[in-house]
Amino acid sequence: MASIIELKNITKRFEEKVVLNDVCLDIEEGDYISVIGASGAGKSTLMNIIGALDNQYDGEYFYRGHLLKRREMDRYRNEKLGFIFQQFNLIPTLSAYDNVMLPYVYSALDNQKIEEECEELFVRFNLHNQKNQIVNTLSGGEKQRIALIRSIIMKPEIILADEPTGNLDMDNARLIRSFLRQMNEEGKTVIVVTHDNAFANEAKRKLRISGGKIIEDEIVYPLI
Ligand SMILES: Nc1ncnc2c1ncn2[C@@H]1O[C@H](COP(=O)(O)OP(=O)(O)OP(=O)(O)O)[C@@H](O)[C@H]1O
Ligand SMILES: [Mg+2]
């Protein structure tokens, strides 16, 4: 399998504090990676860099062997990456549905098809009653699922999830887990940060971060 993302010698500092320390990581297309580690270890910092949300670091980021330049990052993020993050970046005064459809208002894509897909996803993620609700009246877990729908409807190649089940009940957490597994089975590369060990073991490869370094990198063998 070819490498889809390669990080070379990434060091991230906040002021004098080193939060990622010379991290090297090679991610193959179609892999499913979980990232675990204590609070403050640097997991979200790493995800922000992989997500091209933060380009203030030392080191190099390659996408399919191409060294990403700072000015290419926005386009790369919009076209290739889907996010399920703790902070959702939804527009609070619009409805759930309008938030999801916003990227298509001015696009030339087939809106009818997207609307149908959108309907299906709202049902799938138990949000059919919240479709027309204004976002700032939704619960945290509902907002997170809206953000998820918005990100996957764009059909990203790589899905990044930072504690996606952190504020969900068991049923909705299960939904997200099976959804990520399915996306991976369909060929997408998935990277998930979680504090839940059972969830982490659903991945194919598990990384442990401590003090800004990857201290373990193991293949997870399925139970059956
Ligand atoms: N903007 C910032 N300015 C200064 N320090 C920061 C900043 N963002 C993160 N840090 C520090 O970097 C370290 C790593 O933070 P990070 O958010 O990556 O941790 P994490 O592993 O995701 O933890 P958690 O499991 O609690 O989400 C922490 O010590 C944090 O305080
Ligand atoms: Mg975090």
Low-confidence residue ranges: none
Approximate shape = globular
CATH-derived topology:
Rossmann fold
Mean of residue pLDDT values: 92
How many beta-strand runs? 10
Report the helical percentage.
Answer: 25-40%
The CATH H-level homologous superfamily: P-loop containing nucleotide triphosphate hydrolases
How far apart, in Å, are the first and last alpha carbons? 23 Å
- The appropriate CATH architecture is 3-Layer(aba) Sandwich
Largest beta-sheet characterization: 6 strands, mixed
* Radius of gyration from the alpha-carbon trace, in angstroms: 18 Å
Q: Give the SSE order as H and E letters.
A: EEEHEEHEHHHEHEHEE
**Secondary structure tally, helices:** 7
User: Which CATH class?
Assistant: Alpha Beta
Structural class: alpha/beta
Tell me briefly what this model is:
This protein is of the alpha/beta class and 224 residues long.
